[in-house]
Each structure stands twice: as structure tokens, then as C-alpha cells.
Amino acid sequence: AGLETLLLNVSRAVTRDVLIAFSPTEGPSTLNTTEKGKAGKIHLPREIFRSLSSEIVCVMVTVLNIQQLSMFKEVNQTGQVLDNTVVGITVGNTSISGLQDPVQLTFTHRRLPHGITPQCVFWDPSKGQAGGWRSSGCVTQPGDKETVCSCDHLTFFTLLLNPALDGSTAQALMAVATAGCGVAMAFSIFTIAFCIFIRCRFRFEETVHINLGLHANLVGSLFLLNLAFLINSGLSGRAHPGTCKFLGGLTHYCLLCCFTWTALEGCQLYLLFVKVLGIYIHHYLGKLCLLGWGFPVLVVGVAGVIGSYGEYSIQTKDHQVIARLCWITSKHLLVHYITNCGYFSLIFLFNMAVFGVVTQKSCSLQHTGAVQDGPRTWKVVLVAAGLFCLLGATWALAFLTYGTSSAPVLYFFTILNSFQGIFIFIWLVVLYYPKTKETNGSLSHIIRQEKTTTTSQ
């Protein structure tokens, strides 16, 4: 199933090029000019047959539909195979490579979507442990409705549809991420200092002190994550394998700490706005710190035992390595999907539910007049934006950058997530710094009004 083969006996003394048509639905056949534009074409140059010793050689063209096959599956493959079609070409019983006059394969297709780049590749069984796609020796000539692949050897070919991430865009994204990490680290220090200053300088109720402690720990995890990324990107590629494993585990730990503290922020908001009463726990902040900084240790420890960390390469659409990071290796992608994607997905769904409840309750308090002299509209917007950052909504953009993402989406995710620390700093200063005796519009004021309203009810 999914395989069509054409066998041709061709004379060694052939004076003309050999032309063959192939279709993912009908397989290969001798070229019919009436089917022009409806099927792909294979052009075999005379040079191939002149180098053979036999008078008669066998040309075999195989068209595979790999959708239902377990072969030709590359680990961590980002591009999609056009029509799930792979074309194999063999002439005689010898390996043919280094052709001066290349073999040409014409892949027909519809107009490709914006942000998709075609790439001619061949299957290399020696790449990695299970094989992979390579483009060396092949030249891609894209067109509106067809793409021509010119290759200097014979093997199994296909056309990959890759995200439009070229080398210059990738380098620019790395530069933006590096600059953003530096700025985020500086503002993280400012935020932690501000939280310490305001807790010592002004008298707040215990709930606000706990909130400030939570915010300081979240920002601290962001600081460590940015620092780990900068160290990682600076040392990886030339670090000892043992050092690279340590850096990969450290970066993973910092990321999980950031996610965990984001979840604890959501739990705190749930207790304040939904439970409202009866949330006082002995050594509450200390227990949160034990969970926020301790739980990721267990996850990273288990991942380290099974050898999940090592060198990870970031490649462009033409498989050029632009950066090497110490991270979860390609062999253990399941660890990444479970501990990062799955873990964050659960946290994000919970936090967005909490955000919806908080927004609904805040609006109901405004409409019923429970909050006297409420905040201005711009301050409500600022509170909502700050809550979105605290609850990790910027990290959710990572799900939009997978697969066929365009460059603007990648830039937006990189910039917004890199400067998350700046947004949190501005949010905390505007929200918590008292300009008057009564900090109207602050989160603590809304909480007090909610408690009063619930008690009276």
C-alpha cells in the first residue's frame, strides 16, 4: 500500500534524456505531454547512462505515499512532506553521485501559503540514529505552482514545506532575545528591590505582604531563567558534555520554577477573590516557597536520571545550525512535551479560569457600587494587563510559534516574553505604591471591599 513502481529498460547508448512523469495518486509512468501540469516530472540526463558498462540497464522509479508508512520519519522534523510523497530513483545496480548534469525533479503543487518555503531534500539513512532529510547536493528552484529540484545524485527525494525562518531572521531573533534577557534581568532586580522597599517602608495588611512576597519570588524565577539562558547561549557549543548536561538541567529547572510560581499566583488570586475568607495559613509564604522552588527539583532530578539533557541545535529551514543550547535533547522530546508543554497547558487553563472569575467579580463590584471611588479606566486596563503577565499568558504565545509560524509571530513572542519583567515592574509600581492615604483602585482595596461585601451578605 502506498507504493507504485515503474521499471524501464534503457540502452547504454541512449542519445536522448529520459523523461518520466510521476503522481502521488497514480504512481510513475512514461511522460505524456497531454498531462502537462498535472503530474510531476523526472529528467534523467544522458551522463548517467554513458558511465554504465551494460548495454541494457534497468531504471526503477518508486513513488511512495508515506502517510501510512513508518519509514522516512525524521525525529524533530519541522517541515511537512508535500502530499506525503517520496520519489526514489535508481539506475542499474550502482550508486550514482557527483553528476555534472544534474537530475531534475519537478514537483507540482498549488500556490503555497504565505510563510512557507519549499526545500528539495533527500533521505540520508546515516543522519542520526534513524536517518533524516538533507539538502546538500540539491538546488531548489521554487515557482508559483511547481518547484524544480536539481540534484547531483540518485536516491529518495521529496519536497519539504518549511516555516519561513531564514538565517538572518533567526540571528535577529537571537539578538532580540539576548538583549531582552539583559533588560529583563535589570528590571527584575528593580522589582525585587521595590517589593522589599515597599514592605519595609509602608504598612500594609498581611494579605498585601503575602502578595508582594509572591510577586518577588515570581520575578526572582524570571531573573534566574534569563540568567540561565544567557549563560547557556554563551557557553553551549564549546562546553564539556557534563557541563552541558548541568546547564540544560539548570535552564529546565528555572523554566519550571517560573511556571510553578505562575500557578501559585493563580492559586493566591483564587483564594482572595473566590474563597475570600478563611485563607490564613501558618507560615503560608514559607510553604509556598518550599513548593515553588522544591517541586521543580523533583522533575529535573527524574529527567536527569534518564539522561534527558545535552546539546540541542537550533536550525534554519536549510538545516544550518545557528545556535547550540544545552537543553533537552531530541531523543527525549517526550520529556519536553510532558514537563513543559503539558505542565504549562494545565497551569494556563487554570489561571485563565481564575482570571475570568476575578474579572467578573471586579466588574460586578464596580457595577453594584461596592467599590467607592473606583479606579479609572486606564488603571483597570493596567491591572488586567499585569494579571495577564503574572498568570503567564505571554508564555501561551509559544503554541502559536510551532510549525508554520510566520516571522512576525516569532518576533512578537520573543519581544513580549523577553520584556515580561518590565511589564510586571511597571504594574507593581502603579498598583502598590501609595500616592494618597487611601490607595483607591489597588488590588488590596478591591479585596477589602470584597471581604466587606461577603461578610455583610
Automatic annotation (TrEMBL):
Q: Name one GO biological process term.
A: adenylate cyclase-activating G protein-coupled receptor signaling pathway
> Which residue ranges does the record assign to the GAIN-B domain?
20-167
Localization: Cell membrane
TM ranges: 172-198, 210-230, 250-273, 285-309, 337-359, 380-403, 409-433
| Alphabetized UniProt keyword annotations | Cell membrane, Disulfide bond, G-protein coupled receptor, Glycoprotein, Membrane, Receptor, Signal, Transducer, Transmembrane, Transmembrane helix
Membrane topology of this protein = Multi-pass membrane protein
**What name is this protein filed under?**
AGRG3 protein
Q: Which organism is it from?
A: Furnarius figulus
Under Gene Ontology molecular function, one entry of this record is: G protein-coupled receptor activity
Q: What PANTHER family does UniProt report for this protein, alphabetically?
A: ADHESION G PROTEIN-COUPLED RECEPTOR G3, ADHESION G-PROTEIN COUPLED RECEPTOR
One GO CC annotation: plasma membrane
List the InterPro entries: GAIN_B, GAIN_dom_sf, GPCR_2-like_7TM, GPCR_2_secretin-like, GPR1/GPR3/GPR5, GPS
* Annotated G-protein coupled receptors family 2 profile domain residues: 177-432
A Pfam family that this protein carries is 7tm_2
